[in-house]
Design a protein that fits this description.
Elements: H1 3-35, H2 42-54, E1 57-58, H3 59-65, H4 70-82, E2 86-90, E3 98-102, H5 104-128, H6 131-147
Antiparallel strand pairs: 1-3, 2-3
Length: 150
C-alpha cells in the first residue's frame, strides 16, 4: 500500500471516529429523553448511575470519579438529597465522612428508566432493521465494546 492509500484510509477512519462520537452523543440524548425528560441533569444522572453500579461512596470519591471539584459535587449531591434520591449516613470508619447511597425509591426509579430505555431501543431496532442488519448491529456492538477494554 502506498502512502496516499494509507493517508486515505486514515482520513476515512478519522471521519468514522468523528461520526461515531456524534452518533453516540445523539443516541445518549435520545435514550435520556425516552425515560424521564428533564428529571436529572447529565451530571446528576452520572452520579446516580455510579452509585447504582459501584455502591455507596463519599462525596470526595464521587468527585474524583467524575473528575470534578468537591464543591461542584456537593451542589449535585445537595440537589439529589433534596429530591429524595440520595441519602447520607456517617461513615462508621471515619465519622467526619458521609457515605452517600441511593434511596430505595431512587433505585426503583433508575431501574424503571433503564427498562423504558431498553424497551425503546429494542422496538426501534426491530422496526428499523432487517434481521440481517440486526445481526450486523449485534456484531458492531461487540466490536465497540473492545474500545472500552484496557
Amino acid at each position: 500500500m502506498n502512502a496516499t492509500a494509507a493517508e486515505l484510509d486514515d482520513a476515512r477512519l478519522l471521519a468514522t471516529a468523528s461520526e461515531l462520537r456524534v452518533l453516540v452523543a445523539k443516541l445518549r440524548r435520545r435514550l435520556a429523553d425516552q425515560a424521564s425528560p428533564g428529571d436529572f441533569t447529565p451530571s446528576q444522572a452520572a452520579v446516580l448511575t455510579r452509585l447504582l453500579s459501584e455502591g455507596p461512596a463519599t462525596l470526595t470519591t464521587l468527585a474524583k470519579a467524575e473528575a470534578m471539584r468537591p464543591q461542584s459535587m456537593s451542589a449535585i449531591i445537595s440537589a439529589l438529597q433534596a429530591g429524595g434520591v440520595v441519602e447520607g449516613r456517617p461513615d462508621p470508619a471515619d465519622g467526619r465522612q458521609t457515605i452517600l447511597a441511593l434511596t430505595d425509591a431512587a433505585r426503583e426509579r433508575v431501574e424503571r428508566a433503564r427498562v423504558i430505555k431498553n424497551d425503546w431501543l429494542f422496538h426501534s431496532i426491530r422496526a428499523k432493521y432487517t434481521p440481517a442488519e440486526q445481526a450486523e448491529l449485534t456484531r458492531s456492538v461487540e466490536l465497540l465494546q473492545r474500545l472500552l477494554e484496557p
